[in-house]
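User: I'm putting together a teaching handout on how multi-component assemblies are represented. Below are the sequence lines for each component of a complex, exactly as they appear in our records. Could you produce the 3D structure of the whole assembly as structure tokens, so the students can see both representations side by side? Please keep the chain order the same as the input.
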Amino acid sequence: MGIHVVTGSASGMGAASASVLREAGHTVIGVDLHDADITADLGTAEGRRAAVQGILDASGGQVDGVAAVAGVGPAMKDAAAVASINYFGPVALLEGLRPALARSSAGRAVVIGSNSSTTVPMIDDALVGLLLAGDEDAAREHARAAQAAVPAEVGQAAPSISAYASSKFALARWVRRTAVTPPWAREGVLLNVIAPGAVLTPLMLGSTGVGEEPDPDAFPTPMPLGVFGRPEDIAYWVHQFLRPEARFTTGATLFVDGGTDAAMRPDAQ
Ligand code: NAI
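Assistant: Of course. Below is the structure of the complete assembly, with chains in the same order as your input.
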């Protein structure tokens, strides 16, 4: 049985992932702002360093799996915080834990992106560039400045929609670029993305502004299956990606979105 790290373990998909892994007999080190084995703010450089150190201390320096689930949604008021939490949080954690993953005989990492990276039209290329360049101060400044350009009718419910979709887009690109570099690929550490669609969690219900389950057929993006996802639907795939037997997939993005991406981009491969 392995030692797995789950960020965002206090709620939603992270909580569901931690339970599935624990039920399968693994040791789980949960990281979150509250109610976790390690409490840390992954939106700050200091919080990320403390989280990595806490994980290394708790695991003895070898980790078999990391599920970087923690994140915020487009309803977050401050777009700078979205860039820090959703991009720099998982990237710094994974970079910090890579040597510990490499000590495992089957190191696996999976990050939670979003299908907004392909279905939301407001990808900010300049922000994506700053994120991938690792310039957190400039990315934060740009994200805040660009927030003013989000149209008011969208901005009321989702003031950070552009920063949100752009941070998830950049994260998926970082994974694709990084997974195939020698320190990851040649040390046998596999790195993939799960891109959820609308999943019923406090984040999603909060961003609808009504706090209760909306009608899937009246949702702004198509929901071909006619249902929203549940946290367990994502946890299932987190578990699969972290299995030692999942040994020939890296740099991939799996859409777990009830068909939204396929419905919106039927001809994309
Ligand atoms: P949630 O709000 O239920 O859980 C997110 C968890 O992340 C919370 O426990 C929260 O405390 C933690 N977190 C937030 N900021 C943090 C920080 N600075 N440091 C440490 N922990 C922090 O949300 P949900 O829906 O389970 O979200 C999980 C991931 O899925 C997020 O990355 C989100 O962006 C992504 N996502 C969610 C979708 C949805 O429809 N629910 C759709 C697509 C992606």
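A couple of points students might notice: The longest helix spans residues 79-102. Strands lie at 3-7, 27-32, 38-39, 65-68, 108-112, 190-196, 253-256.
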